[in-house]
Each structure stands twice: as C-alpha cells, then as structure tokens.
Amino acid sequence: MDMQEVRKKGVNGWPVAALLVVALGLLIVYFHHLATSGPVRIAPLIAGAVAAVLWAIAVAGFFTLEPNVSAVLMLFGRYMGTITESGLRWANPLYSKTRISLRARNINGTPIKVNDLRGNPIEIAAVVVWRVANTAQAMFDVERYEQYVTIQTESALRHLTMAYPYDTFEGDTLSLRGSTDEVSASLKREIQERVGKAGVAIDEARLSHLAYAPEIAGAMLQRQQAEAVVAARTRIVDGAVGIVEMALKRLEQSSALELDAERKAAMVGNLMVVLCGHEAPRPVINTGTLYT
Questions:
Q1: Domain presence at residue 76
Q2: pLDDT for position 264
Q3: pTM for this one?
Q4: Is residue 95 part of a domain?
Q5: Which of 21, 3, 5 lies closest to 13, judged by CA?
Q6: Which of 233, 234, 130, 224 is nearest to 169 (CA)?
Q7: Is the four-CA dihedral 192, 195, 199, 200 of positive or negative sign?
Q8: Percent of the chain with pLDDT over 90
C-alpha cells in the first residue's frame, strides 16, 4: 500500500522561543528564591528540577528549514507528517526529523550500449530532471529513493531504445535520431510510470548522447553516405527532367525552329548528360548534320 503524505504546518519557532526565554527567566528567579529563602525544601527543589528538564526538552524541538526542503516527522517509528514551510520551526521534541530536498535534480546518464529495434548496437544516454513530490513515498515505499530513480531511469532508457530504430529507413515514421521530441516525450512517460512508486515527479527527459556502437559505426556511415548520394541524384534527375520538359515546350511554342522526333531525342539526351553529369560538359562541334 502506497504511503500518503500528510502536510503539517508546524509551529512558528519565534513565539515559542520568546516563551522559553520568559520561562528561563522565571526558572532563574525561582531557583534564586529557593537558595535565599532559608533551608532547602525537597518538594520545591524537585518541582524546579522537573521544570528545568522540561524546558531543556522543549528547546530540543527547534529546527530550521531552507526553501524547498521538507522535514519528515516520525514518532517511535510512526509517520506523523511532513513540514515544508521554511524558517525557524518548532515541533514535538520527541519527533525524529529527516530532511528531504524538494528541489529539482539532474541525472546525467553515462552512455550505455543497447540494441535498437533492428538489432543494431548503439550508444545512448539521457539527461533527466526530477524532484520529490511525495515525501512519504520517497521515505517509506522504496529503499534509497535516489538510487531507485537512477536504476529505473536506465531501465526505461534501455526499454525505449529497443522500441525505435536508430534512423529512418525504408518508410519508418519514427526514429531515435529523427524524432527527438516524440522520443523524449515517450521517455518521460515511461520513467514517470516506473518511479511513481517512489513519490518522484519527472520534469524533463531528453537524449544527451546517441551514436552507433564503434564496431558498426563505419558500415553505417557508408550506408548513410550512399543514401545521401541516392537522394541527391534523385533530386538532380527530377530537376533535369523538369528543365528538359520546359525547354521542349518553349521550343514547340516557337515558330522559328521545328524539331522532328530524332532531333528532340538527341537534344533530350544532350541536356540530360549536361544537367546530370558530375563534370562540366565538353562541347563538341558538329560540322555536318544528323542526316548525312
């Protein structure tokens, strides 16, 4: 059963401190009166000693809290509540007080090697921003909540990596490299589901490192280069076809020049060679005609 956090305001320490100062003055006057009033009587002395002990115990109830720091109160192993108000506070001196920070924290993960959706080994790491939202769960539902969050974050990252390919190939819609926002949102949701038991809230989760493992990095680089060349060539050919179509259309609209099918084919071939070639074209002077 999950622990439920109980918020306590606590007592402002300054009025209590003022009362204890007054009580100390009264104790001093009381003991001075006992010492100067003749023979010491046992009952008044015992009463003064008990009052002094109670005063000392009450002083032990003071504690201070910084902003965004909470104090979990326990009485003989029983959870009594959590105080989050900063400043000088006072609580039952018998309470044990464990401080838990509510500030945002970072997990800067080191790169780990995981196989992606296609089985390719990759190196991946993430940065996670988290904070304690439920001090009771963080204190009592898990053992060492900071270590728990770190381990669950790595487990979530491994599971997420196996659900996506490294890069987009062959019609894939999402990938680790190309869908950063979607992957980060999925990573945040998965980590939150895993660490919710520890009373932790995940503010942000993003990939900080992504690369192929060294043993396949060279082969994958060649594949990416080949795909880039194919994509560039496809774009060049599409552009060249459009230019050739526009040139033929303009020539057909001009009455000064008429081309038969053979001349059109020759012109199309020459234009495609010029537009799609790697090197600059080398002009050839034709001293005859196409029909001799």
A1: yes
A2: 66
A3: 0.70
A4: yes
A5: 21
A6: 224
A7: negative
A8: 50
Tally of domains in the chain? 3
Q: Looking at the structure, do residues 204 and 233 belong to the same domain, yes or no?
A: no
Do both 151 and 241 map to the same domain?
Answer: no
Please tell me the distance from the alpha carbon of residue 172 to that of residue 225, in angstroms, as a whole number: 19
Judgement on whether residues 271 and 203 belong to the same structural domain of the protein: no
CATH number of the domain bearing residue 182: 3.30.479.30
pLDDT band at 111 (very low <50, low <70, confident <90, very high): very high
Distance from C-alpha of 178 to C-alpha of 182, rounded to nearest angstrom? 9
Average pLDDT over residues 73-86: 93
CA–CA dist 14, 7 (Å, integer): 21
- What count of residues does the chain have? 292
Higher pLDDT, 197 or 240: 197
Residues 46 and 113 in one domain: no
Q: Which residues of 231-265 are buried (b: 16+ CB within 10 A; e: fewer)?
A: eeeeeeeeebeeebeeeeeeeeeeeeeeeeeeeee
Rg (the chain; Cα; Å): 40
Q: How does 30-51 read in b/e, with b if 16+ C-beta sit within 10 Å? A: ebeeeeeeeeeeeeeeeeeeee
Interior angle at CA 273, CA 270 and CA 276, nearest 5: 140
Give me the pLDDT at residue 273, please. 66
62 plus 144 within the same structural domain? no
282 part of a folded domain:
no
pLDDT tens digit string along 145-188?
999 999 999 999 999 999 998 887 655 578 888 888 999 999 99
pLDDT of 231 above 90: no
Secondary structure (3-state) at 32: helix
Mean pLDDT for the stretch of residues 271-278: 64
Residue 138 one-letter amino acid: A
Structural domain boundaries, residue 181: 105-212
